[in-house]
Amino acid sequence: MAEWEIWAVIVVLALSTAITRSGFWLIGHRVTLPPRVQDMLRYAPACALAAIIAPDLVLGSGGQVHLGLSNPKLLAGIAALGFYVWRKNMLQTIVFGMLVFTLLRILHVFGASA
User: Fold this and answer.
1) CA 62/CA 55 separation, integer angstroms
2) TM segments (predicted)?
3) pLDDT tens, 56-108?
4) Model pTM greater than 0.85?
């Protein structure tokens, strides 16, 4: 790819990003979304986060699905979900999930060597 083509791609991507993001800023106050759409958009961040986290919890190092009890990520995720349902606090859930994951990893490391 020639140098001018790389610069052309960068300029086109920058323009397309600016146009798509400024559209909501320029005319967003004139557009009224229906309440049903607004309700659905409230769940978009949670869905995006789940789409990012879920594959990491269930996929093994080789890319195959690993749903067994020897998967510390999955167990820590389930424990964190239970903690969140109980406490309803996101920061405590993150800390709890990481503590459970670390504990499971330590137990797995020492359990494998024993």
Assistant:
1) 12
2) 6-28, 40-59, 93-111
3) 888 877 778 888 888 889 999 999 999 999 999 999 999 999 999 999 989 88
4) no
Q: In the chain, where are the structural domains located? A: 1-32, 38-111
Considering only CA atoms, give the Rg of the chain: 22
Q: Rounded to whole angstroms, how far apart are CA atoms 67 and 92?
A: 25
At position 61, the amino acid (one-letter code) is: S
Q: Say if residue 92 is exposed, middle or buried (CB neighbours under 10 Å; 0-12, 13-18, 19+).
A: middle
Please report how many Cα atoms fall inside a 13 Å half-sphere around the Cα of residue 14, on the Cβ side.
6
Give the Cβ contact number of residue 76 at 10 Å.
Answer: 21
- The alpha carbon of residue 48 and the mean position of all alpha carbons in its chain are separated, in whole angstroms, by 6
Per-residue b or e along 37-64, where b marks 16 or more CB atoms closer than 10 Å to that residue's CB: eeeeeeeeeeeeeeeeeeeebeeeeeee
Give the Cβ contact number of residue 72 at 10 Å: 18
